Amino acid sequence: DIVMTQTPLSSPVTLGQPASISCRSSQSLVHRDGNTYLSWLQQRPGQPPRLLIYKISNRFSGVPDRFSGSGAGTDFTLKISRVEAEDVGVYYCMQSTQFPWTFGQGTKVEIK
Amino acid sequence: EVQLVESGGGLVKPGGSLRLSCAASGFTFSNAWMSWVRQTPGKGLEWVGRIKSRTDGGTTDYALPVKGRFTISRDDSKNTLYLQMNSLKTEDTALYYCTTDDYYDRSGYHPGWVYWGQGTLVTVSS
Fold first, then answer.
1. Cβ count near B69 (within 10 Å)
2. Residue A6, SS3?
3. Are strands A89-95 and A38-43 parallel, antiparallel or unpaired?
């Protein structure tokens, strides 16, 4: 199985300041079709996960542009340019390149 | 409005069975590839399995911990996804979500993990 490792596991951030989450996969996530199926999900307290970013850097419809994704191969990053109160929650990277699909452990973003 | 509504969870003894349902509305369910994902406080999010659309063969794939015990099926006439869980173990205790998987059709790529239900809780305990 591809292991997804996120750092940090907890990220206390001041409102209006940036936040960055790293995700590293144990194998390359480049699919044989040339795409990299790396997504970022946000889970607010008491809610199901919500798709933010797909295929590394594509922001899903309705997701604020303060969220951005980058990376390639085995190293990926989610950045929040200016954290807002509604961004509190747990963020997961996940891969759907190779079965079984796997998730990172989650990074808790909280306000200082 | 898109809705996924899971049901069928509950308390079951180890070795028992349960069938979960996921009623879909607001999108073309028959075209969608669907997954089940479960969540526990200790293990986070875990993918359980996926079913393709009937047009794409309707085939299924499973995570190793559930392979041979769980079966995913769909009834497109009812816009409903199912998860039949047999030989349940205590480690299957989790909140079970249905969600859309990513897939391609004639209109292009559809990213997965867009639509989620609220989940249904399965507790396996004696």
1. 15
2. strand
3. antiparallel
B117·A48 Cβ contact <8 A:
yes
A9-37 confidence digits (pLDDT tens): 999 999 999 999 999 999 999 999 999 99
Contact B111 A105 (CB under 8 A): no
d(CA B31, CA B103) in angstroms, rounded, equals: 9
**Partner-chain residue, chosen from A51, A100, A105, that has the shortest CB–CB distance to B63:** A100
Residue-wise pLDDT for B7-17, tens only, equals 999 999 999 99
Q: Could you tell me the two tokens for B14?
A: 């180890």
Question: For residue B42, what is the nearest residue in chain A, using CA coordinates?
Answer: A105
Residue of B27, B39, B43, B45 to mutate when probing chain A, most A C-beta within 10 A: B45
Distance between A79 CA and the closest CA of chain B, angstroms: 19
User: In terms of C-beta density within 10 A (0-12 exposed, 13-18 middle, 19 or more buried), how is residue B110 classed?
Assistant: middle
Residues A104 and A93 sit within 8 Å (Cβ to Cβ): yes
